Every structure is written in structure tokens, then in C-alpha cells.
Amino acid sequence: MSNLKICRICLRTEAKMYKYDRFQLKIYYEEITALKVPENDDLPQYMCYECATMLHKFHKFKEKCYNGQRVLKEIQWTGNITYEAIYKIDRQNTNLESPLSVVTLSDKVKGYNIKEVDLSSVKHEIKERHTDDFDLYSDYSNDKDLLINENVEKSKERDAPYSPVAMVVDEKRESILKYEEYKKRKRSRDDDDEPNRKMKKGLDLSNWKVYSLTEEQALEEFRARAEHPKYLAARYKCSECFKGFSKKEMLERHTKKRHFEGIGDYECWFCRMRYKWKCMLRKHMLQHYYKFECLRCDLVCMQENTAVLHEEFHSGEMKQCIHCEQKFK
């Protein structure tokens, strides 16, 4: 009986099988069941490909749990557990790196929104439509009505509506728009608003190179803030968003304004800033996933507003003081 190719876990037979002495499957099986498997138990000694994969997956996850516990204990022995200490961990050597990767689709790939249709409701609608009383054969009394006009033009096949593909696939995150699509939507909203409202000056993309960052690149850019000389030299530091302050009151005001839980339920998973509305969080997330490089002086900035102010410097625009009317560049 032990030679029968039956999966010891799910009892299936019509699948690719592996004997449990291969790939340490027997050891993983004993870990999960907490039972010692004797050699002569006369039970099937095979695992199907699906169960073998799950055994290996759970074993790796168990290792990850132990590694995470060990690294946290080491950090605790040397000091406090902070975001800075966590970001300095070599995740690859400690086997804490996620096996999942970010998929960035090409702009040429079309995305289709598929909606499930309740077939029972459709059938019900069809039945209701056929309840009217009419003569089924009255429209076909004349054979001339059955003639087919072959000169009718065929309708052109229409493409399915295309919507921009999200940058990152993650069930926890909101989809981040492409920068150009975001600007299009922003302009269309501005056009619909009152014409007398003062318009914000946009960024001239002919003078800038916009970089779209992947999840890993955005995370590296954010963690690099912890190593910035200005942050390291600051007297008071915010360990959540890596901003430095010269006074304690400024740090307390920043924490109350940006990281206080009462602000809202929507939190940025990079800098831990909180927002009241989801749309405000989406707008904030753009600064983590886009980088602006000035083509005239090679300045690199993460925020569009900073880029707009820098562009005014190149254009020679003068700012006037509202108190003394003195002008500054």
C-alpha cells in the first residue's frame, strides 16, 4: 500500500507525485503535523505537487518567523527598536526579503474590467420580456420581409475602453496613476471649475525629466533620508518620516500635525503621515513614486511644488513682499 501513488495529504491520485524522501518533504510534513512518521506505517509515501509546494512554503515561513524574532532580539539588545534600525537590516542575508515582486506593465497592454453577471437574474429578465401578448407570426406573413440587404455596411469593431494600468499590484495599496494621466485629470477638473478662480501654475515638462519609480526604488529613496547629512546633524529628529528640526517645539508641532492618529485613518506606508481622506493620501503618494530632474541644472526633487518653485528661479520671476513691496528673485 505504501507504493500507491496517492497523495498522503489530500488523497488525490490524478496529479504529479513526489515521494516524501525527496526535497525533505517528510521532515516538513512532520513539522506541520507534529508527528513522527515511522518507516513501516503502510500508508502512502507520496505527496502531490500542490501539497509538496505548500509544505515547502510553510517551512520557509516558519524559518522567516524565527529569523524575524532573532533580528528583533538583536536590535533590542543594542538599543531601541525604531524605523531607522529596521531600515538598516540586510533583508537578503537575514532571509527576510519578500518573495513577491512588483509587476510594471507596459503602456501597450490594455486593461479590461471584467464584471461578473448573475445568470439567474438574466434569465429572469428574459422571461419577463416574453410575457407580452402579441401574434408571433404576424411579422412574417409576407416573404418579402425576409429579404436580406447585403449592401449594409458592417459596423467597425470598437476597441474596449482603455484605462491606465496601475503601477504596482498590491491589495493594500491604492493604484498610483501615471504622472501624465494624473496631470490630464487635474487639468480637466480645473477646466470644470469657476473661470474666475486663480489657477495654479503647472510644471513645464519640456524642462524636466520625470522618473517613475518602482516599489523597490521608492523604498530605497525613502530609506536614504535616514542617511542624509542634514537629518543626521539635526538636533531633533522625526524617526517616522526622517525629518530634522532645530527646536523641540517644531518637532512636537510636526508630530501633532502629521502623525497624530486623530488626523485620519489613512496612513502613508512610507513616511507614516496621516490623512483624513483617501484622495488626499493618493495625492501625497505621488511624491514617493515620482522624481523630477531639472534639465538645466541637474537638480533632483521629489515634489512637484518644489520643481515649480525651482522653475520660477530659472525663468527670472520676481517675488514681491506684501509688506514693503521689495522684490526678490
UniProtKB/TrEMBL annotation:
<dbReference type="InterPro" id="IPR050758">
    <property type="entry name" value="Znf_C2H2-type"/>
</dbReference>
<dbReference type="InterPro" id="IPR013087">
    <property type="entry name" value="Znf_C2H2_type"/>
</dbReference>
<dbReference type="Pfam" id="PF07776">
    <property type="entry name" value="zf-AD"/>
</dbReference>
<feature type="binding site">
    <location>
        <position position="48"/>
    </location>
    <ligand>
        <name>Zn(2+)</name>
    </ligand>
</feature>
<feature type="domain" description="C2H2-type">
    <location>
        <begin position="236"/>
        <end position="259"/>
    </location>
</feature>
<feature type="binding site">
    <location>
        <position position="51"/>
    </location>
    <ligand>
        <name>Zn(2+)</name>
    </ligand>
</feature>
<keyword id="KW-0677">Repeat</keyword>
<feature type="domain" description="ZAD">
    <location>
        <begin position="5"/>
        <end position="75"/>
    </location>
</feature>
<keyword id="KW-0862">Zinc</keyword>
<keyword id="KW-0863">Zinc-finger</keyword>
<feature type="binding site">
    <location>
        <position position="7"/>
    </location>
    <ligand>
        <name>Zn(2+)</name>
    </ligand>
</feature>
<dbReference type="GO" id="GO:0005634">
    <property type="term" value="C:nucleus"/>
</dbReference>
<feature type="binding site">
    <location>
        <position position="10"/>
    </location>
    <ligand>
        <name>Zn(2+)</name>
    </ligand>
</feature>
<protein>
    <submittedName>
        <fullName>Uncharacterized protein</fullName>
    </submittedName>
</protein>
<dbReference type="GO" id="GO:0008270">
    <property type="term" value="F:zinc ion binding"/>
</dbReference>
<keyword id="KW-0479">Metal-binding</keyword>
<dbReference type="InterPro" id="IPR012934">
    <property type="entry name" value="Znf_AD"/>
</dbReference>
